[in-house]
Amino acid sequence: MKKSLRFFLRFHLLLFFSVFFTLIDPKKVQAFTGTYGINYGRIADNIPSPDEVAVLLRASKIKNVRIYDADHSVLKAFSGTGLELVVGLPNGLVKEMSANESHAMDWVKENVQNFLPKTKICGIAVGNEVLGGADSELWGALLGAVKNVYNSIKKLHLDDVVQITTAHSQAVFANSYPPSSCIFKEGVDQFMKPLLDFFSQIGSPFCLNVYPFLAYMSDPENIDINYALFQSTQGIDDSKTKLHYDNMLDAQIDAAYAALEDAGFKKMEVIVTETGWASRGDSNEAAATVDNARTYNYNLRKRLAKKKGTPLRPKNVVKAYVFAIFNENQKPGPTSERNFGLFKPDGSIAYDIGFHGLKSSSAGSSHLSFKVCHISSSQ
Question: Which of 129, 186, 261, 285 is catalytic?
Answer without folding.
Answer: 129
